[in-house]
Specification:
The chain is an alpha+beta fold and about 160 residues long. Helices cover about 40% and strands about 15% of the residues.
Length: about 160
Amino acid sequence: MIQLTVNGKTEKLDVSPEMPLLWALRDTLGLTGTKFGCGVAQCGACVVHLEGEAVRSCVTKISRAEGKSITTIEGLSLHNDHPVQQAWQDIDVPQCGYCHSGQIMSAAVLLKENPNPTDQDIDNAMSGNICRCGTYPRIRKAIHIAAEIQRKKGS
């Protein structure tokens, strides 16, 4: 049994320690917001937070997460009101939407680490997240808006 905390809830999973975290989340726990895109950590669709760090769950073995805290898109906020989620909704960022759970999770870590990012900071932090629809300008704009929302909530 592998024990971990997912979105604040302790889970015990009877799975192989070699299983990718992505499949434990999707297939075992039914948390399908985290997407499978490439399986080789190149697209970012599978990003989750492991102890607050953005990781590619498609190549992260569940054994690495044992005893640790994982946050998925479903657990980022209780009412979809994280500043990044608000900004995404405010300016209608997604086109097809497939990559956006990974985009949002990556952006949330960026803003935690750098609450006032420049365009270059955003481009660098988000460069590992691929959007096949090309919504990069809206993603960047939404991250700036989320930073502003976060600043206003903090004051």
